[in-house]
């Protein structure tokens, strides 16, 4: 009986994902934004700038995962593409948290690492992460384009970002799975572009 309960639940959860993908395919505005995101990434690389990712919790790990795809490759060997995750250096993050303020963990790093026309990508399923908002405020003051990737509604981060990718879901797991899918597809296309 327990096995059948699990299988029923599994089918239900997979159907939620199928519905999310169907919503993506039918949402022409979202598809156009993803195309624009791809074009912004290409333009950034072509002018010699870099992508900078930040996020908290699972999104912090996802930032590192995505950056690895740009630096190394996804499916085809091609030139390394300049990207970094502000979530990677524990010494920096803990020093800023201890000596300054946790809200500054990303903005302080931007001060030392970012240059005008770099792209800052902030991943926040809620859109209310104060440390990402602070980083976007820094970006706005320093000619760094900011792109938010958030969940289902207008939020504080989308209010300040230059561009928004809003995943049409309120379910944290589905939002995370959706943005990973988007970034993987973009990386696949970049693999082809730079082969």
Main traits of this protein?
5-stranded parallel β-sheet, 195 residues, alpha/beta, 5 strands, Rossmann fold
Structure commentary:
By secondary structure, the protein is an alpha/beta fold. The protein has one domain: Rossmann fold. It contains eight helices and five strands. Strand 4, helix 7 and strand 5 form a beta-alpha-beta unit. The protein is globular, with a radius of gyration of 17 Å.
Helix and strand content put the structural class at: alpha/beta
Low-pLDDT segments, ≥5 res: none
- CATH class categorisation: Alpha Beta
Report the CATH topology name: Rossmann fold
Residue-averaged pLDDT = 94
CATH superfamily: Glucose-6-phosphate isomerase like protein, domain 1
Strand content: 5-15%
Please write the string of helix (H) and strand (E) elements: HHEHEHHEHEHEH
* Termini Cα gap: 51 Å
Spatial strand arrangement across the major sheet = 2-1-3-4-5
Short description:
This protein has 195 residues and is α/β, with parallel strands linked by helices.
What is the element layout, followed by pairings?
Blueprint: H1 2-26, H2 28-46, E1 51-55, H3 58-71, E2 83-85, H4 90-99, H5 107-113, E3 119-124, H6 130-141, E4 145-150, H7 156-160, E5 163-166, H8 172-193
Parallel strand pairs: 1-2, 1-3, 3-4, 4-5
Helix pairs in contact: 3-8, 5-6
């Amino acid at each position: 009986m327990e096995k059948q309960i699990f299988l029923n639940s599994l089918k239900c959860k997979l159907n939620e994902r199928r519905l999310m993908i169907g919503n993506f395919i039918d949402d022409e505005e979202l598809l156009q934004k993803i195309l624009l995101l791809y074009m912004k990434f290409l333009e950034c690389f072509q002018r010699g700038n870099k992508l900078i990712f930040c996020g908290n919790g699972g999104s912090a790990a996802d930032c590192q995962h995505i950056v690895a795809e740009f630096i190394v490759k996804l499916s085809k060997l091609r030139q390394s593409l300049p990207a970094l995750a502000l979530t990677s250096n524990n010494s920096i993050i803990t020093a800023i948290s201890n000596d300054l303020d946790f809200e500054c963990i990303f903005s302080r790093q931007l001060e030392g690492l970012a240059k005008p026309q770099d792209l800052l990508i902030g991943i926040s399923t809620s859109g209310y992460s104060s440390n990402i908002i602070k980083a976007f405020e820094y970006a706005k003051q320093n000619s760094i384009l900011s792109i938010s990737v958030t969940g289902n509604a207008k939020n504080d981060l989308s209010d300040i970002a230059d561009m928004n990718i809003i995943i049409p879901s309120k379910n944290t797991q589905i939002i995370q799975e959706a943005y990973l899918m988007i970034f993987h597809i973009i990386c696949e296309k970049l693999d082809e572009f730079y082969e």
